[in-house]
Amino acid sequence: MGRKFGYFCSSKNYKMYRSHTCGELRAEHIGQTVTLAGWVQRSRELGGMTFLDLRDRYGITQIAFNEEWDASLLQQARKLGREWVIQIEGEVIARQSKNPKMTTGDIELKSLKLVVLNAANTPPFTIEEESDGGEELRMKYRYLDLRRGPLQRNLMLRNRVNIEVRKFLDAQGFMDIETPFLIKSTPEGARDFVVPSRMQEGKFYALPQSPQTFKQLLMVSGYDKYYQITRCFRDEDLRADRQPEFTQIDCEMAFVEQEDILATFESLLLHLLKEVKGLDIKSVPRMTYAESMERYGNDKPDIRFDMELANLNHLTRDLGFTVFDQAETVLGIAVPGAASWTRKQIDKLTDWVRRPDIGMKGMVYCKVNEDGTYKSSVDKFYTLEQQAGWAKAAKAKPGDLILILAGEDRLTRKASSELRLHIAEELGLRDPSVFAPLWVIDFPLLEWDEGTNRYHAMHHPFTSPKPEDIELIDSDPGKVRANAYDLVLNGNEIGGGSIRIHDRALQSRMFDLLGFTKEEAEKQFGFLMNAFEYGAPPHGGLAFGFDRLVALLGGAEVIRDFIAFPKNNSGRDVMIDAPATIGDVQMNELKLITTVNTQEK
Ligand code: ASP
C-alpha cells in the first residue's frame, strides 16, 4: 500500500480514471489536484456540506462538498447512493478534524468534479468491517462481501504468502510444473469427483485428490525439485471447515532423505513467519507420533500451552473405585489456577465431556488447594497421599484443578485431547498471535480399519516404511513405522508428506498389504510401478494445505474467509447455484441417461 500507481496517469492516451488510489493521499499531497475512483461507502450531510467516504481496496478517502464552493455539485453528491461507483476530481486539503484511525485521516478532497460511473442497488447487507448480513446472504452476494475490509485483507495476505512461497522455492531451485486435472483416481483416502467423458462413452476422469503420482513421475523424469500451488479435489462428507476443492503447496524432491525434506520445508515455514508475521523463530521442534499420542492424545498437538495428559493408571487402579478399576486408561489434566472453579463450572464441563461427539460417561475432578490439601469427587476411595500422587504425575501446582477421564484407551485419549483444547480455548491460551510449529515424525505405516477389517495406509500407499522396520512387514505390519511426517502449527496439521517407495517390488508388496489384488494394483497404478523400473531415484516430498496455512497466518481458523469463492458447509456455491442439474441434451451427449426400452417384445 502507499505505492505509486504511476501507470494510471503515465500516458496521455490512456484513459485516466484515477491518479491515486483511495488509500494513498497524505498531508504531503495537500494542494494537488487529483482524481479518485471508487465506491461510495457512506455519506453524511451537515448543513450546507456533505462528506462522502470513497472506498477502494487500498483504503477510504473523505470527499467534501460545500454549498459555498459549488451548490450544484453538492446537489449531485446528495443523490448518490451507497456503493455507487464514482469518479471524483478534487483538491487535496487539510482536514479540519483529523482522523488518526485512517491512513488518509489528515486530508480530504475538496470536490471539483463528480462523474457517476455506475449506479448501484442498495446492497443487501452493510459493506463495513462488521457486516449486518448473515452468512448465507453474504455467500450469495460474495462479490459484495469481498468488498469488505476483513476479506480484502485476507486475500491480500493470501497473495503475499503465495508470492513468498514462490520466492523461497524459486531461490532453492524448485520448478513450478503443472500437472493435469482430468486424471484417474489418486488414493488420498477420500472419494473422487468424477467427470464423464463425452468422447469415450461410459468412461470417467477423476479430478486429482492431489498431484501425488504425477510428482513422483516427475522425479523419475529428473525434475528433482518440483512444486506447484494447485487445486485438489476431495469428495468427502463435509466436516466443518473443509472445502471440496482446496489448494495445496505441493512439493517433491529427488536424491533426498527425510532430514533434507524436514530442513527445506522448515526453512520455508520460518521464512513465511518472518516475512509475513515478522517473527524470528529459529527452528521447529520434533516429536514422534507415539510421543504425541501419549502426551497430547492426538497427532497434531497444540504446544502453545501445557496441560499434558498424565497417565494415572497405576495410581488409581485396584483401590475400590470401580470406574477406574475397570477402565483401560485413566488420564488426568492439570488445569492451571482452576481449583477455585465452582461446582457449576465443573458440572458444565462434565456435561461437555458427555456430549455424544466426545463420548465420555463422566469426569472426576481433584482440586489441589492452595493450602496443600486436596478435594476430589472421589475422596472416599482415595487418600490424600494418593491424590498427591496424581498431582505429581499431572504436574499440578497448588491452585490447579485435575480433571480425570477414564475408559477405553482410544476414546479416553481422544476425549482428553478435546477437553484439553476446549479448556485452553476457554482460558484464552490459544492466542492466535503466538505461533508454535512442530514436526510430528515416525507415523505408523498402516492403520487398522475396524469397518473393513483390513489395513489402510496411514498416509498413502506410496509411503516408504522405515528401513529398520521392514522386517516387521510380514510378522507385525501394524508396528511398522513410516518415513512420514506432518508439520503442525498451533494444533493444526498444515503439511504432511513422506519418503516414497521407489522400488517396484516393495511398492507391489505394499499394495498386497493394503488388500489390492495384483490385477487391481496393476490396473490402477501399473504406470507408476512400471516407471519405477526405468531408473527411479530415491525421492520424497510433502504438501502444505495452503488455505489453512494462510488462515492461521491471518490469526483465524476458518479457511472459508481466506478463499475468494468458497463452497458453503454443504458443498454448494450458493452464488452461482452449483452443483446444478444439466439439460437433457448434455445428459444425452454424456450418455448419462439410460434409455429404457418400454416396448414389449
Ligand atoms: N499427496 C500428499 C497429500 O495430499 C502429500 C505428500 O505426500 O506429498 O497429503
CATH-defined topology of the largest domain: BirA Bifunctional Protein, domain 2
- Class from secondary-structure proportions: alpha+beta
Strand content: 15-25%
> What is the highest CATH level, the class of the largest domain?
Alpha Beta
Rounded to an integer in angstroms, the radius of gyration calculated over CA atoms is 30 Å
How many distinct domains? 3
Categorize the overall geometry.
globular
* Lateral strand order in the biggest sheet: 6-9-10-22-21-20-17-11
Oligomer: single chain
Ligand types = aspartic acid
- The helix fraction, in percent, is 25-40%
Low-confidence sequence ranges: 1-14
Mean pLDDT: 94
Distance between the termini: 76 Å
What does this structure look like?
The strands form five sheets. An eight-stranded mixed beta sheet has the order 6-9-10-22-21-20-17-11, sandwiched between helices. It has a five-stranded mixed barrel with strand order 1-2-3-5-4. The protein starts with 32 loop residues before the first strand and ends in a 12-residue tail after the last helix. β20 and β21 (492-499) form a beta hairpin. It has helices at residues 71-78, 135-140, 142-145, 149-171, 212-220, 258-277, 289-296, 313-316, 322-326, 343-354, 384-393, 409-426, 472-475, 504-513, 518-531, 546-553, 584-589; strands at residues 33-46, 49-56, 59-66, 85-94, 107-118, 175-176, 194-196, 204-206, 225-233, 245-254, 286-288, 310-311, 329-335, 364-368, 374-376, 401-407, 437-441, 446-449, 454-457, 484-489, 492-499, 539-545. α4 packs across α6, α4 packs across α16 (546-553) and α14 (504-513) runs antiparallel to α15 (518-531). It has 601 residues and is of the alpha+beta class. It has three domains: 27-118, OB fold (Dihydrolipoamide Acetyltransferase, E2P); 153-287 and 438-562, BirA Bifunctional Protein, domain 2, CATH 3.30.930; 305-430, GAD-like domain (Gyrase A, domain 2, 2-Layer Sandwich). 28% of the residues lie in helices and 23% in strands. Bound molecules: aspartic acid (ASP). The site of aspartic acid has 9 residues, from β21 and β22.
